[in-house]
Amino acid sequence: MTPREVPLGGLRAMPVRRTLPQRERSLIGAWCFLDHYGPDSVAETGGMTVAPHPHTGLQTVSWLFEGEIEHRDSAGHHAMVLPGEVNLMTAGRGISHSEVSTAATTTLHGAQLWVALPDEARGTDPGFEHYAPPEVSGDGWRGRVFLGTLLGDTSPVSTYSPLLGAELVIEPDVVVPLEVDPSFEHGILVDLGSVHVDGATAKPSELAYVPPGDGTLVVSAGDGGARVLVLGGPPFGESIVMWWNFVGRTHEEVVGYREEWQAQITRDGALVPDSSDVADGRFGVVTGDHLRPIPAPDLPNARLKQRR
Q1: Are 41 and 107 within 8 A, CB to CB?
Q2: Which stretches make up the Pirin C-terminal domain (predicted)?
Q3: What is the pLDDT of residues 60-87, one digit of tens each?
Q4: Three-class SS of residue 63?
Q5: Which of 8, 18, 105, 212 is 20 to 30 Å from 24 by CA-CA measure?
Q6: What are the chain's domains?
Q7: Residue 55 annotated as binding?
Q8: Which of 253, 254, 205, 264 is nearest to 53 (CA)?
Q9: How many C-beta neighbours within 10 Å does residue 299 have?
Q10: Is 78 annotated in some ligand binding site?
Q11: Is pTM, for the whole model, over 0.90?
């Protein structure tokens, strides 16, 4: 699957390459959203400045190859996103957060992913976990497992459905057979180089999809080597409605989330100038942030469709 380029945080913002969701596929396991960005020169793009914005019904997974991003959220968490370390934020019933690249960052390069929460977990309290996975290595490869189990290593990070997330660096022309759960479907996002997987070649920012059924996933690097993210999980088995930053189950539910966010960030019909002026509510107030919150876009003139 090939990506489309979109601006992160609105027009004239940092461009990202999005491979999930798209027409051909909405989810891989519970993975429902995948943005890939960089390497970008912050001097040219301005870096990442994503002001407070809301989420429901999902977990965000932040993974960097290069740079540094400051995270703040309305559950009181303040953390740095660093290369090779995962930050997982659980939105649950509702959270808001901001993401800003630091002044010391000259190059920004990474991936932002979302995981849809199953119905029984989507009303859970907001939460946050950070984990620095150890590097594991073998003949011609090295990797870091940030979610689930792969390469003989298991991440302790909590998820609400079975998931796999790992970075894998492969030397030129090396073939790596990965022992995986045969009930999982998998996605291979190429960051650098190219790989051959399941009968096809994937190039940078492309996402290869592999259906369930085989306990061995064979990934072969091209003559320049490769760096990829390996993602997986059992088919989600639920229909979702995903619009803007919300994951719900019905059109009416998502419309309600939008109305609640707009009510928190407006006074007398105008957007508040500072995130500290945001009213408390479902999405809380981002601690220590003073950027102007991001208003929700207009809804389309049609019912939001379920994704399966």
Answers
A1: yes
A2: 167-263
A3: 999 999 999 999 999 999 999 999 999 9
A4: strand
A5: 8
A6: 4-233 (2.60.120.10)
A7: yes
A8: 264
A9: 14
A10: no
A11: yes
